[in-house]
Amino acid sequence: MKNIAIIMGGYSSEYKISLVSGNVVYNFLDQSKFKGYRIHIFKEKWVYIDANDTEFPIDKNDFSTTVNGTKITFDAVFNAIHGTPGEDGLMQAYFELLGIPQTSCDYYQAALTFNKRDLLSVLKPYGIKTATSFYLNKGDQIDTNEIVNKVGLPCFVKPNKSGSSFGISKVKTAAELPDAIEIAYKEDNEIIIESFLDGTEVSVGVINYQGKIIVLPITEIVSENDFFDYEAKYLGKSQEITPARISDEMTQKVGEIAKRAYEVLKMKGFSRSEFIIVNGEPHMLEMNTIPGLTTESLIPQQAKAAGISLEDLFTNAIELVLK
After folding, report:
1. Rounded CA gap, 157 and 116, in Å?
2. How many angstroms separate the CA atoms of 98 and 80, rounded?
3. Is 155 helix (H, G, I), strand (E, B) or coil?
4. What is the dihedral of CA 115, 109, 286, 134, to 10 degrees?
5. Rounded to an integer, what distance in angstroms lies between the CA atom of residue 143 and that of residue 135?
6. Per residue in 161-174, pLDDT tens?
7. Per-residue pLDDT tens digits for 53-75
8. Which one-letter DSSP state was computed for residue 176?
9. Three-state SS string across 184-239, please?
10. Who's near 114: CB < 8 A, 6+ residues apart?
């Protein structure tokens, strides 16, 4: 029986969603193979939470815990932390130093994909199309005319490094830009402002399943809100249609691009890439390496459409790293 630490929580606005994802993993773990331990990772404390919600501190020297005088160590870590420090490379590097296998990609890939600007610039030479963008760092002069001339209106203002659509605004007039920029700066000190792509939004899951890189059935996203924001993602304000209502040819095309990105970046574990298809061309927005694993989340929906149960999905992720 292998001891599996399921890490959840984190230091960002996404911690609540991460706790839900982590508990789903915990509840669907194959108990004939694994003993799951829920580990909460917060700035102020790292603790193991037992079935009675009692907290036991984690020793950061070797990522162990002691319960009633018995020291518990872990054979592998299931990473369910969205945002920092689980999705940006910090935990990946820590576990690599300790020699403990974990289910997400390596630290460089995590840091790269977490930085939307850097990810898109690395993928550009491979022919992957993106929106037109404008970059701002905190303290830069804001010239609204210059921004509008480059990206046009409407446009999207996004924190460069954050998830779950926190801090994103859709801007329709130049006058709205300064407020939108302030909102984005609450999440990150770097901003990416992108042209509005008017097309079909799809989300493409790519995973290593039983040693083979596969593209899961694609989800089409139709938001009731102006875009696929936090409300649309988590409060039911969107329709998520799996498989997407796109031609077989387009399904193949966008799937191949997402898979190429996964392979080019030497990804491991789960990935979910977002695209908007404009005039028959998929444009990539971002890649998530710790996508939501709540029962409503897209990767679980896509796995289900592919005939993969949550238990199989999680078992596969752990068994791949234990090898």
Report:
1. 12
2. 19
3. strand
4. 30
5. 12
6. 866 568 889 999 99
7. 999 999 999 999 999 999 999 99
8. G
9. HHCCCCEEEEEECCCCEEEEEEEEEECCEEEECCCEEEEECCCCCCHHHHHCCCEE
10. 84, 87, 88, 89, 161, 289
CA–CA gap between residue 128 and residue 119 (Å, rounded): 11
Q: What is the pLDDT of residues 74-114, one digit of tens each?
A: 999 999 999 999 999 999 999 999 999 999 999 999 999 99
Give the mean pLDDT of 220-248.
76
Beta-bridge mates of residue 67: 70
* Cis before 300? omega within 30: no
Q: Which of 72, 68, 2 is CA-nearest to residue 34?
A: 2
Q: Please state whether beta strands 190-195 and 155-159 pair in parallel, antiparallel, or not at all (unpaired).
A: antiparallel
SS (H, E, C) 90-130: HHHHHHHHHCCCECCCCHHHHHHHHCHHHHHHHHHHHCCEE
**Two tokens at 277?**
């298809």
Instruction: Pull the structure tokens for residue 303.
Output: 């796995």
DSSP SS3 for 273: strand
pTM here is 0.91
Helix (H, G, I), strand (E, B) or coil at 265: coil
Nearest C-alpha neighbor of 128 from the set 313, 289, 312, 260 = 260
235 pLDDT exceeds 70? no
